[in-house]
Amino acid sequence: MYFICKGEGNVINKRKCNKYRAPNCHRAYIPLCGTDQKTYPNECILCVQIRHL
């Protein structure tokens, strides 16, 4: 199964990411597209990436 990011999809802002604390991300696969057009496995992992920018 493949997912391709197209457009901006659901945009996650940094404020919503405050509820996630790395490295304790869950492993559930609920793919999201980042504004960088990459697919992230779930919201937590996307938020961790946003913090590193």
Describe this structure in words.
The chain is α+β, with helices and mostly antiparallel strands. 17% of the residues lie in helices and 8% in strands. The longest helix has 9 residues, at 43-51. The mean pLDDT is 78. Residues 11-53 form the Kazal-like domain. This is Kazal-like domain-containing protein. One of its GO terms (molecular function) is serine-type endopeptidase inhibitor activity.
Ordered list of secondary-structure elements with their pairings:
Blueprint: E1 32-33, E2 39-40, H1 43-51
Antiparallel strand pairs: 1-2
GO biological process, one term: spermatid development
Domain Kazal-like: 11-53
GO molecular function: serine-type endopeptidase inhibitor activity
Number of helices: 1
Radius of gyration over alpha carbons? Answer: 11 Å
Overall pLDDT level = 78
Order of helices and strands: EEH
Strand content: 5-15%
Measured distance between first and last alpha carbons: 29 Å
Low-confidence regions:
none
Estimated structural class = alpha+beta
| Biggest β-sheet: strands ordered side by side in the sheet | 1-2
Main pleated-sheet profile? 2 strands, antiparallel
General form: globular
Strand element count = 2
Helix percentage range: 10-25%
Pfam families: Kazal_1
Domain Kazal-like: 11-53
Organism: Eptatretus burgeri (Inshore hagfish)
GO molecular function: serine-type endopeptidase inhibitor activity
What can be said about this structure in brief?
Pfam families: Kazal_1. The protein is α+β, with helices and mostly antiparallel strands.
